[in-house]
Structures are given as C-alpha cells and as structure tokens.
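Reply to dn_fold:

You asked what the input looked like. This is it:
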Amino acid sequence: MVEEKAPPEHAPQEYVPREPGQSFFDAINANKRNSLLLMGVVTGIVLVMCLVLGYIWGIGYYGLFLGFFIGGIYAIFSYYMGSKVVLALSGAKPLQKKDHPYLFHLVEGLALAAQIPKPKVYIVEDQALNAFATGRDPEHSAIVVTRGLLNAMNRQELEGVVAHEMSHIAEYDIRFMMLTIVMVGLVGFLSEIILRTFIWGGRGRRSGGSGYIMIIGVILAILAPIIAMLVRFAISRQREYLADATAVRLTRYPDGLRNALIKIKNNYKPVKRATETTAPMYFADPIGKKVAGMFATHPPIDDRIKRLSSF
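and this is what came back:
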C-alpha cells in the first residue's frame, strides 16, 4: 500500500491528494482538437448565414463574398487594435522592472522556457486575484496581473499563474480567442442584417421556396447569436484546460498552479472593470457569474484543481 503524500508546507488548507491520470501531453492534444472543432462550428454558422443572406437579397453565392468582405474589415481592425482596447477597458498600466523585479524575473524565465519573446507586463489596481494575457502574437503580447494577485501569491503560485498566461501566448490562444470574438461579433452583425431585411420585405426572389428560405433565415438570425456565444464559451473553457496543462509542462510543478486556484477559490473577489467581452480572457472568472455548464466562460475551479492533481 502506497502512503499518501503529505501536503507541501506552502499549500493552502484545502488539499487534494494526487491521483494517477492522464499526462499533460494527452490533455494538450485533446483540448487542441476540441478547440479547432468548436471554431469550425462558428465558421460554419457564418458561412450558412452568408448563403441565406445572399439568397434573400437575390445575389446567390455572392453572399459569401459579401460576408468575407465585411468579416475581413472587422478582423483587420480587431487584429491590430483589439489588445489596446482590452488594456484600456481593463485599466491596465505598464510596470517597470525596477518596481517589481520579482515578477519580471518570473516572466523572463518562463518566456525563455516557452521560447518566445518576453511579453510586456501590466498591472490592474484591483484587489481581486486574477490575471490575463492579450496581444496578436508572441511578438506583440502582454501579461496583466492584478494587485491582489501580486500581494496574495507566493513564488510557486505566482509562477503557476504566469506560466498559464504564458501558455496562452505561446500557443497563440490570444490570437485564437481574438478570432473567436471576431467571428461571434460577425454572427451577431449578420443576424441583425437578416432580421432587418425580413422586416423590410427583402429584395430576393419570391417564387419557389423563397418563403421557406426567409423563415429559415429568421430562425437562424435568432438562434445563431445564441449558438455562437455558447460556442465561444466552450472554446474559452477548452483553452483554459489547455493552458493549465501547458503551464505544468513549463514549470514541471503542478502544485504551484493548483494551489493558486485553491487560493483564488477561497478568497474570491470579482474584477471591477471586467466585462462580458473581456471575461473569457482572464485566468479565473472575473465577474462572479453564478452559472455553470454551457453558459460559463471558465471551467469550474474544482474541476481544474482535480485535473491538476492527476498530473
């Protein structure tokens, strides 16, 4: 009989014993597949909506070109300006190395381990325990931490959180999630166009099955934004699992990240300037939504702790 391993001295009071389970390499591969599948669903919804709109307007498959044109402009703006908007909305301010050398040493070391350029470091003056990463690629990225996180975490715990955010950057999650936000926004925009076209009577063909197409279009316009939002939440949850697993690969110490999650769970506070749009980017749910399952932006903390305990 194997004797159970005692909690490390720096662990919080709640301790989850380690259990044998899948490796973090298995978790990384599975979450990558699931995330790409979910992104494919959103792309499919956009294409179908463009086809329906093209039929309603009487331009057929040219509706696809219209959708790509609108989506392209939206994507270019989001790609180059998205991170700046997020930092401004969050109230993040740049940090200097002389002010927090401890944090900068962690960021530099983990960036070296992940083989990416060192991200810029920002802070949000908020007592909540949280963090997020943003940017369009590793060369133009930033890691943001709250004042509460810096004050509450020990070195191993802070390293786990920073490694999690570094994983989002190294795995191009920051670009992936930005693209997801763009696609979900495009679904909402196309939905509005379809509904307004229906209200105005449309310009498309009136013979054959056009009536059925209009009905399908209205149903799609109503349901598509809801489906796209649920897919976005699902992608966010999958990427959080993936970043947890990748963080363990960087630090080789799952207890740091696990204990950070336990500490956040036991000392939870919402981030004051977080919004529904920026919520999926954070390390933990920043707005205290009392929802679970399909409507949650983050996996349950208990589930993340359990998975980390199995590594």
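Residues 54 and 61 are 6 Å apart (CA to CA).
Hope that clears it up.
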